[in-house]
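Data availability (excerpt). The following record was deposited with the supplementary files.
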Amino acid sequence: MDYPEFLTLQSAMVGLALFGGVVEHARIQTQAHFQATMAAETGDVMEQLRAAARWLLTVNLDPTLIAFKRIAFSEALVVGQSVDSRTDDPTMDRLFALRKEAQDTGILADGDTPFLATHLLDCVAICSIA
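Predicted structure:
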């Protein structure tokens, strides 16, 4: 590898690290906003699920997050590697818990809780920018 190729590679790595830091900051802020929104919701499990869905729609229409999603989709291979290594997701954990509670109380029919919660997220997150 010659020097110009090295500089190009180094510049790309620095750019990815900076973008990763910005995305991580946005993720932390978004999760804090979700936790605050859900903590303020005092209704039954269906009202909480509706509040979560409304929050998901609102946050997925945020111009900054739309821009991040566009970059992430265009750089899916690179960004996806860092995202795939994450195992914690408080937002999905909360959606799973709400969906399970709704099933346990008979408000919602039985079903695959992780699939249904992920489907809710995908419908709101992906369809809102399509």
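Summary of structural features: The longest helix spans residues 3-40.
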